[in-house]
Amino acid sequence: MNVQQLENELWEAADQLRANSKLTAAEYSMPVLGLIFLRHADNRFKAFLPEIEADIPAQVPAAQREQLIKLGFQGKAAIYLPEAARFDRIASLPQGANVGEVIDAAMDVIEAEYPVLSGALPRGYTAFEPDLLAELVKIFDRPAIKAATGDVFGRIYEYFLNKFAMSGAQEGGEFFTPPSLVRMIVNIIEPDHGLVLDPACGSAGMFVQTGHFIEDVRHAVVNDSVTFHGQEKSDTNTKLARMNLVVHGLDASNIRQGNTFYDQIDHLVGQCDFVMANPPFNVDSVDTKKVEGQVDDAGRLPFGLPGTNAKTRAISNANSLWIQYFYAYLNDTGRAGFVMASSASDAGNKDRDIREKLVKTGHVDVMMAIGNKFFYTRSLPCTLWFFDKGKRTVVRGGKPQDLQDQVLMIDARNVYHVVSARSHIFTDEQHANLNAIVWLYRGEQEKFVALVAHYQRQVDHWLTRIPERIAADTAAIEALAGPLQAFAAGATLAELNSDQAQDAHITQAQLDTFKADLAAAQADKQAADAITTLLAACAQARVAVAAADLTSHAGQVALQATLDALAPQLKAVGKALEARHKQWLKLLDTAEKTLRSRSSRAFDGKATRDAKRALMAADARKNEAPTVRDATLDALKQAAYFIHQVHWLHSRFPHGLFEDVPGLCKAVTTKEIAANDYSLTPGRYVGVAPAGADDEDDFAEKLREIHDELAELNEKAAELAGRIAGNFEELLG
Length: 733
Known about the structure:
Layout: H1 3-20, H2 25-54, H3 62-72, H4 87-91, H5 99-113, H6 130-139, H7 143-146, H8 152-164, H9 179-189, E1 194-198, H10 205-216, H11 222-225, E2 226-232, H12 235-247, E3 255-257, E4 272-277, H13 288-291, H14 319-328, E5 330-341, H15 350-360, E6 364-370, E7 382-388, E8 393-396, E9 399-402, E10 406-411, E11 417-420, E12 423-425, H16 428-441, H17 445-490, H18 493-496, H19 508-523, H20 526-547, H21 553-594, H22 605-615, H23 628-652, E13 665-669, H24 670-675, H25 683-686, H26 696-732
Parallel strand pairs: 1-2, 1-4, 2-3, 4-5, 6-10
Antiparallel strand pairs: 5-7, 6-7, 8-9, 10-13, 11-12
Helix pairs in contact: 1-6, 1-8, 2-8, 2-12, 9-10, 9-16, 16-17, 17-19, 17-20, 17-21, 17-22, 17-23, 19-21, 20-21, 21-23
């Protein structure tokens, strides 16, 4: 998904509403989310429709055929959409049609099919200006939004809340948990059976990701494996959660509205197999009297009340309430994963006492520090907490380890991928690599070995594509060289200077310089020699992959020595190809702009345009297809990238076993935690990575972040300077 393109088009929709609608943001927010629901439901419907239709005999009558399609959607990760609710039908309405009535009717037929959505889908589309509503439908029918995948529902919701500055948008993730953090929680607690609870469920993103985990990793049917229970304070959010679950084909019957501080969901205390949440941080006005009755070994506050405000007597910070709730809802073998403000792992006074009791249970499993810029609406660090009441003794390095006496501390603040100056995420591989630390800690070496094998097979996959893509790249260079050679051989000064309207007179010296530069480019063998060397090395590496035992750590280490040696060559050839592209495109630029080649009969304009297009970088913002250049450089980068992933893991865990890594992770005993006043802040334990430990890829990522931030600051400075200049002119009158 091109997130930037998606956001640009969503903001265009927001601009349409803000500029042209008579409705307020509060009035049009839910109808817009309803359009998003229809769009997303249609996307998922179409994804499964061909598979379902393929199983229906062609001779089946149309009316019966529709019933069979409807039956085919049972158990799918999507919903059946009646024809009246399909987005294509709405988008293709003729000009002048009452679009509002059609959308309202679409909501009616969906609720009739899915009673769990009764009252959840928005209505009132007839209140929109018809032309404006038709334009919004067109925007939501564009390729970037039609192609959006994953839990886009929550992200788009958060996007609109933030951009419209509606009430609740400043709650720092109350409505939307970044997908990177949701995936990390799901991957570590592995919710694949029983009761799954999110007592602050927002748009139900945790449940949606759990569905992906069960389908993609466990290869099971979600609704047969787990039962979701969600609670949300906001009526709007409970509707949104139901919409999000239903659109993914998940059971939404146990989503309820309620304030979790006071509405205890008693029947689930001590019964849940998994608890996951991203609660609102640092709430400071919870009524103490309403929660005092929850303090009980068998209740939701087994470790006591947090501190209270001396003046109001309200709970001064509810973080410790949430932490205890998540613990109390678990059964005897349950796991929990949740997002929490970084301050909660070091808070003093009664919060410290609660943490001490919690640590002494032996059920704190993993603490993971997350850096800034992961949240969509604000930049703040946080910590992921993980509980496991079913901890056991594992064997690591031939020695039994009692996990009840340990907590795994991971400092992931330096692990991220820069999307923009304001937004960070984890890539798929960063997710897997951090997850691999937990696997090794739990004694699950086989998962670590399987991950490394996957990376090394990916290297092999990309190595197979390099020869054909480099050949295509070289052919594109030759396709450009031909017309430029013909121009150099056949151009005359007379025809180049035939246009009297041109001010600049082209000289023989300029033409001779161009010919000399062209000859130098043709004689340059640097890229060709590097390519020849690389292709031979790639062939040798592929032989090594085929011969390697990828099922053993020792076999993977032996293979990686060959692949690590290949990585610098891949990068060097990538740079050589980029230099070659620039060299030939510069020659073309000189021919067209300086020498006015288009006025020469010796110049083939069409051939050069086609060759130039193959050697230019595609513009992702315009959804342009990758060029020959893009495909070639991508193959080189991908091969080097997956080599780097194995290097990252092997350099930190050379024996394929868990070990403490300075600056990254450490298995800390409860005795060490007690000595640190029961702090659960990872950075306090893992220490600092040795100087120079960052590799070239990590350095490049940090450099890109600095560059993006500088560019954003420069834009803001230019905008501010313009405002100041405008204000100054107004003052001078």
